[in-house]
Amino acid sequence: MTQILFKDINKEGLHTMKVYEExxxxxxxxxxxxxxPDEIIAAVKASGLRGRGGAGFPxxxxxxxxxxxxxxxxxxxxxxxxxxxxCKDRELLLKNPHLLIEGxxxxxxACQVETGYIYMRGEFHDLSVIMDKALEEAHAKGYLGKNILxxxxxxxxxxxxxxxxxxCGEESALLNSLEGGRGEPRMKPPxxxxxxxxxxxxxINNVETLCVVPYIVNEGAEKYASFGxxxxxxxxxxxxxxxxxxPGNYEIEMGTPTSELIYNLAGGIRNDNKxxxxxxxxxxxxxxxxxxxxxxxxxxxxxxxxTMLGSGALIVIDDSVNIVETTLxxxxxxxxxxxxxxxxxxxxxxWLYQIVERIMQNKGQLExxxxxxxxxGNMSFKAFCPLADACVAPVVSSIKHFRSDYEEYFKNVGxx
Amino acid sequence: MQLICIRSLYAGCGNLxxxxxxxxxxFSEDQEKEIARIFAKYPVKTSALLPSLTLVQRAxxxxxxxxxxxxxxxxxxxxxxxxxVLSFYTMYHTEKVGKYMILFCxxxxxxxxxxxxxxxxxxxxxxxxxxxxxxxxxxxxHREECLAACTEAPMMRVxxxxxxxxxxxxxxxxxDSLD
Lengths: 416, 179
Hints:
The complex is a heterodimer. Helix content of chain A is 43%, strand content 13%. By secondary structure, chain A is an alpha/beta fold. By secondary structure, chain B is α+β, with helices and mostly antiparallel strands. In chain B, strands 2-1-3-4 form a 4-stranded mixed β-sheet, covered by helices on one side. In chain B, α2 packs antiparallel against α3, α3 runs antiparallel to α4 (65-75) and α4 (65-75) crosses α5 (79-86). Classes of the chains: A alpha/beta, B alpha+beta. Chains A and B meet through β3, β5, β11 and α13 of A and α3 and α6 of B.
């Protein structure tokens, strides 16, 4: 299987400059500096790379949206990694910090940025120490700082730690948090490319997205675009967790069947139980029943199946579980993480929780399901950011595919 | 009559406020250096708020009202602003917690792998309820949302360290090994 990001991931000492350079690290810089910034943006566009953080927006296009001739500009790397089920970025940050730095240098050069921030979730304190060390090494080598490799291009990259808030993974909330405020999302437009950090044009990309850029510069956009499907190019890191024998982060070519991930790479379902459901892209996307397990793992195929690729977190659920329990846990998460700015999200998540909790206490009625669907309808696309929609996804999809799990509880109404 | 009441109320409050003595928070020399280093990262001072709060909490285990005032002064923002930001984030504590903060993940991947039972076991082992601190102020146990280590579920974080693939025995070993 093609390995781009995970090629040398388990090499001893990869996090050090010495080993990283021995394996060909930072070679892309000279190649990039020989080109004009616009040429690099064009190459990233041609590669078909799309954002790996969740929304899947074309990366090159995002870079080209930056407001013209407005400086300074900023680059923010989103290393908040807070989507339940996702832990791919943590592995990259832990084992290969220089790859991210190299990607950030390339992006900064292409977008004419002179200051970059890596926004990490507060729990990643240890990773920020590793990253600071790597940044220091890059400084000492002259890959960061003033007049990089004699090109006249300047760049500083800093780490910034959050303090425990899921919503700060949303790009505009991340900016507010980085500015020293409460992590509440902003109204869009203006989009960050026009008015972002400190009201200046800002590029925000996920760790994985930026880590792909060195490969595109080194090997060419065509080579990268030769992997994957017609519309979903390249490879994707997938965190497989839940009821599998070998949970882990795996790099697959886009379009690989989901069943290959579950039964081959992750070793199949634990205790050889039967697959009941899977959530393909992190807790914020709709779940699918077992009969959809052959769906190719790429943006379009998953969308056609009624879900999303999201952040690439495949959560596998076997038939020992009642889906209502899982759904309640997810609602509880979104209720806890709602920032409270928008009423439909703040109140809606709480209502959903209360109703599903009552159902689980055998106090439900059949019409509760209609009520749930009604509340969900009033939550989606009614808030500043997609948190409310994320909460709606597991509720609606669990009702759609596993209605009988809800009905189990109605049989026992009155039995405590 | 009403007027008099209000006046006396005011007087009472005045006395009360007058009696609250807030000592001044002193940053250590190292902290001052660190804060200067943090300031240098950003074009505006307020961006240093989260890192400064983290710095104080790592030293004191808690962010005291005195520290909020002192940080506000350094950043040219009001103590109220500092508190409003602080209260948004779950990682800051305004009340003392144990020497070891155990954050036990109960989100989906961990739940599927039996985190609820293990959390119960941990609480029993420490002889506290979830959310409480042990009598000797050594451990605080909290339920926590996803910590981005789902492939090692079930997992917990003790201060800065991640522990994955937990079992009852492993939890006992970890807790016993902390002094």
